[in-house]
Amino acid sequence: MKLVPESAMHVVSKPWGREVWWAVTDRYAGKRLEVRAGHSLSLQYHEKKLETLLLVEGRIALRVGDEEQEIGPGMAVTIPAGTLHRMRALTDAVVYEVSTPDLDDVVRVQDEYGRG
Questions:
Q1: How many beta carbons lie within 10 A of that of residue 4, not counting itself?
Q2: For the structural domain made of 10-110, what CATH number should be given?
Q3: Using CA atoms, how far apart are residues 20 and 5, in angstroms rounded to an integer?
């Protein structure tokens, strides 16, 4: 795997903050999610994608299935394919996500930003 220098990372602005893609290989993809306090990512699931989230800054409420828990820095959660989930930032938060590279299989159930 070849990591890209920060100046060459792919940055995507989102209504809730931004994504900074730092690695994409045949086996996994890695990105940093920067989520502004009070914002949520969509309530969603992935048909094939497995995700592991590591919170490095801030506090989030993470819904996985029917349960929601508050997590803080240093806590990691793995979300299996097919599992309903949503992240809500209680404070400004930075989350690292590593996932299988099936990047376009998101099914949004609810989204505050009008994305389908």
A1: 12
A2: 2.60.120.10
A3: 12
**Which residues have a Cβ under 8 Å from the Cβ of 63 and sit 6 or more positions away?**
43, 84, 85, 86, 87, 88
Q: What is the pLDDT of residues 40-84, one digit of tens each?
A: 999 999 999 899 999 999 999 999 999 999 999 999 999 999 999
Pairing of strands 43-46, 106-110: antiparallel
Q: What is the pTM of this model?
A: 0.85
Spell out the residues 6+ positions from residue 98 whose beta carbon is closer than 8 angstroms to its own.
28, 29, 30, 51, 52, 54
Domain boundaries, the chain: 10-110
Count the residues in the chain. Answer: 116
